[in-house]
Amino acid sequence: MGGFWLTGLIFVPTLGAFGVLLQGDDDSVWRSAFIYSLIPLAMSLYLFALFDPARASYQFVERHAWIPQFGISYHLGIDGISLFLVILTTLLTTLSILYSGGGDIEVRPREFCFMMLILETGLLGALLAVDLFLFYVFWEVMLVPMYLLIGIWGHGRKIYATFKFVLFTMLGSLLMLVAILYLAGAARAQLGHLTFDLPDLYRVSLPPTVARWLFAAFALAFAIKVPMWPVHTWLPDAHTEAPTAGSVILAGIMLKMGAYGFVRFAIPLFPEVAIQAAPLFLALAVIGIVYGALVAMVQPNLKRLIAYSSVSHLGFVMLGVFAFDPQGLQGALYQMLNHGVSTGALFLLVGMIYLRRHTFEITEFGGLWNSVPMYAAVFMVVMLSSIGLPGLNGFVGEFLILLGAFLHSERVAWVAVSGLVLGALYMMWAYERVMWGPITKSINATLKDLTAREIAVIAPLIALILLMGLYPRPLLDRMEPSVNLLLNRVAAAQVRLDRPQLRTVAALNPRAESGRLQ
Amino acid sequence: MTQNFPALALILLFPAIGVLFNLFYGRRAGRGAVNFAGPAVIVLAFAVAVSAFIALLRMPAGAALTCPLWPWIAAGPFHVDLGLRFDALSAVMTLVVTGVGALIHIYSAGYMAEDADYARYFTYMNLFALSMLVLVLADNLLQMFIGWEGVGLCSYLLIAFWFDNPQFAYNGRKAFIVNRVGDLGFLLGILTIVAALASHNVWTLNFAAMQRHAPMLQPVATLAALLLFFGATGKSAQIPLYVWLPDAMVGPTPVSALIHAATMVTAGVYMIARLNFLYLMSPQAMEVVATVGVVTAFFAATVAIVQSDIKRVLAYSTISQIGYMMLGVGVGAFSAGIFHLMTHAFFKGLLFLCSGSVIHALHGEQDMNKMGGLKRKLPITYATMLTATLAISAIPPFAGFFSKDQILDAAFGSGHGWLWLLGVITAGLTSFYMFRLIFLTFHGESRVAPDREHHLHESPPVMTMPLIALAILSVIGGWVGLPKGLAWGDAFGRFLAPIVNHPLPGVLAPPALQVESGSISILLGGISLTAALLGIVVAWLLYRRNPGLVDRIAASLAALYQLLWRKYYIDEIYDLLISRPLFWVAAVPLNRGVDRGIIDAMVDATGLTVEEGGVAVGKAETGNVQQYAFIYLLGALAIVAYYVYRVMR
Q1: What's the DSSP call for residue A514?
Q2: Pick from B76, B632, B640: which is nearest to A327 by CB?
Q3: Do A177 and B640 make contact, defined as CB atoms within 8 angstroms?
Q4: How many other CB atoms are there within 10 angstroms of residue B6's CB atom?
Q5: Roughly how many angstroms between the first and final C-alpha of chain B, as a whole number?
Q6: pTM for the predicted model, two decimal places
Q7: How far is A6 from chain B (nearest CA, A)?
Q8: Which ranges of B362-416 does DSSP label H, i.e. alpha helix?
Q9: Chain B neighbours among A 200-259 (CB < 8 Å)?
Q10: How does DSSP classify residue B575?
């Protein structure tokens, strides 16, 4: 194992970003950016092919000392939890660049492509980092291009949106940094040396009060990113004002970083606290599901509607994460991918209509099926995926999450299912007002249907919607070992909590297994 | 005993090919190709179903043909694999869906001859057939749910087929949403079953395996059965979720015949029969099913007697007839419920197609007050519709007589006399509103608008041939289930018996199966036949003999008439109690209150965000952002640096 696969994956986009800067005219900028984004996509697919489905631990590990005096290492790895998010990142970046070259971004395309590729580096780095400090560096790296994307290429109240985005995210990530540093300090006290390496940090045992504060810091940073209710209000503004590509990456991948952070860091580092905090997070998740859906229903603006729908969908993800059973957690990981595919596609579609009409207001549309039937039909498929129609991808994730939640706590699942009705309600109502009925504005009668480029952008996502709905096993099977590894940690913590007197025994036998929490 | 029968996959494959062809090549290939391909794939599926049926008949009773497909969902020990199961129960359903479906597809080619969107129409119709077949052939509950929601999707798309009309679009969405509400019950029912089995470390939703492990489900049987039944009240349009079906009639009439009469709406009955082992464990749940069924049957029939829209009468009639089926399965007479499902598919499919023929002839007119005297102009439609009306009115020897008779017999045998009585009264109402429909439409003086009068013509053969085929089935379709002792007796019941009657040890056999004396059965049949004939006579008196009388009665019972005419104001009540409060909560306290009023106000109050700088977008502002962001970043880095220093020291 090893080699330079992951380093290559992370930094090819960076090289590409500078390569783009060397290009002359706009056309060659777009062309080269697209090609540079194809390389990591191909690499990630090749990783998928080489990935050993039976292994739970990190694969393709690279480990080098980086700042040894501070115990900071350049440690990368990929497992069943991050594998598909990596592929999702490379795919959505490619599609976003391909789409943006079609007229969506007209000013400063060179800088735009530069930002997109740097953003990809940040995202991939954060997903692949096994060292907490390294993770934090990439976590911040992805923030900068995103707020520049919104601030420079956004619409309308972009200033307000950018600041809200930065304010919320920084608030969380600073606290997280403090927690990371404290944790490294604690590691020095126990292990004898400073370390930011995740496997090392797993072995650090903290006094409950300290663990609680550190968990809270991590959890806040990640909860803002998810975003969980009530720290979600930056999202509708950021989405609405972001350029299409920004929204796609923001919804498709950056939001997943929050849930990923819980799964990768907050929960395995502080499993006891996570178990104790689970009722709170389950409650917030369920509130998010219902609240997001209800508020989405009354939005007059398509992008805001989709943004609030993300609050609802990510509520499902968090529900699955904190159910702490294989069904819930695998469902949550699957739902993260589904949301990336379907919401990414929704933002692309909304962007396409914005290009034609320069508005997101629902009342400006009506009867579009008459003028752009292919667009409307594609939108229908994506909508059905988003509302979890069985046979499409969304259902697989939602069902597993609900099953996991039901096995964990029936009451929570009973409330959460209402999200399925509300989800159908706001999506279909919006669809009806945009696509059906008579054409009320004459300008809508002459719109052009999807172009070849737009079809090329959306077709892979449609294919994934069908494929992931009908044959999810190649994905679920590869997630399972890593998910079980994590759940074993949680189960061991549960044992320690249940029977404090056996603390030492459990510590000696951390793989103590229990199918699910009682 | 099961036998692998890979050809079962073809039953799904043909409609799937139809969907893809019509979707991608329909417009290019042209109307002729679509009109051929759309029905042809269903006919092919029917042919495969018939061959599977023959293979099944050669096997011992209770056998099944199976066809595993591929592994689907898995997480931890939970896993669901897709597969098909063709036993006596799914055989009946598959033959009905593909057989009646094929006839309605053929009819559609004529009915939609002038519609420009023929390719989209047949795409949806084929997709519906595919989903419905997934539903009936599923060998596990979760796969059934794929079909269950899939048919709901097609229903939504086809109700809103002429989406230019905002009302039609709304009605389509209403159907989907109401069904989704029911589906929550279905989903929670599935989850309840999984959890109950999982507590014994059994992880399956396969019907055969569930049945093997049925005793583990005993503790949750009532809950699970009722949750699933709630789903059935949505799909099968029973109280309290029937409200979408009358509004579904705005779709093309062949759609009403196929989806909203013959097949999809009976899915709930099929589901209960499929899960009979679960329902048999809970007498309470069975009682709820039977009660909801018979009350719905009566309630919908009372609404049907005053409606003037021909399709609306048929819609309420469908709700009422499914109520009968629910009554049947609710008293444990599963095969009787499925028997009525089958005969109903023949005669109600036919009634809708006939109404379509009338509407087609009248260029879209659906108000029976503007019809009358059509029997000479539309002789085939008249004859076939009369046949179907006699069948639904349960006049022997037409099909409906035998199936309804079985259900009422079983209801009486259940020991709940009032279930039977309400069923008999409803039988009288049924023949009344159906003959009212016949008299208003085909008899008496013509009330057709003059400009439509001279266009009047019988439908083309592509439409009348399916009418005749279904009329023949409406006559002879019931003969497979004759009363005991008559010729071959209840062959249908014997065919289904090994699949649907599984009294478990410790659970009483359903009361309906207790032997009754033949003379009581004949007496019961006589009573319900009398009620049916009485309904016809009253209809004749009111609408043929003395036409003015109806208005006088309506005037003297104005309040009651209004109540029925406005369908008990149920839609208005739902709107007031559910829809409006929901929207108000979303818009005012949540969106305006919590989101913008509290959370955002707090964020803005920190003063760290800038005020909106208007909509002007320029480079200067962009520069500003970067400047602010940079300062902010510096500050942040300073804090971080301090902590780094503290920790590393």
Answers
A1: -
A2: B76
A3: yes
A4: 11
A5: 77
A6: 0.91
A7: 28
A8: 379-392, 399-413
A9: 230, 233-234
A10: I
CB B277 within 8 A of CB B502: yes
Identify the CA nearest to A395 among candidates A427, A417, A426: A417
Task: Inspect the interface and report whether the beta carbons of B585 and A167 lie closer than 8 Å.
Answer: no
How many residues are present in chain B? 649
Q: Summarize pLDDT for B25-65 with one digit per residue, the tens.
A: 988 888 999 999 999 999 999 999 999 999 999 999 889 99
Q: Which of A425, A490, A513 to mutate to test the interface with B (most CBs of B within 10 A)?
A: A425
Tokens (6 digits) for B99: 């057989």
Among A315-329, B306-320, B440-454, where is mean pLDDT lowest? B440-454
- ipTM value, please give it: 0.91
Peptide bond before residue A227 is cis, with ω within 30 degrees of 0: yes
d(C-alpha A242, C-alpha A245), whole Å: 8
- Chain B residues whose CB is inside 8 A of the A516 CB are 76
Chain A positions in Cβ-Cβ contact with residue B177 (cut-off 8 Å):
421, 424-425, 428
Question: Chain B contact for A190, CB < 8 A?
Answer: no
SS3 of A77-142: EECCCCHHHHHHHHHHHHHHHHHHHHHHCCCCHHHHHHHHHHHHHHHHHHHHECEHHHHHHHHHHH
Average pLDDT of chain B? 87
What would the pLDDT profile of A438-462 be if each residue is shown by its tens digit?
A: 998 888 888 999 999 999 999 999 9
In the block, residue with structure tokens 């899960």: B275
Helix, strand, or coil (residue B481) = strand
User: Which tokens in the block code for residue B602?
Assistant: 């707090």
Phi, psi (5° rounding) for residue A361?
-70, 130
CA A334 to chain centre: 11
Q: Do B163 and A477 touch (CB under 8 A)?
A: no
**Structure tokens given for A276:** 């104790």
How far is Cα A138 from Cα A140, in angstroms, rounded to an integer?
A: 5
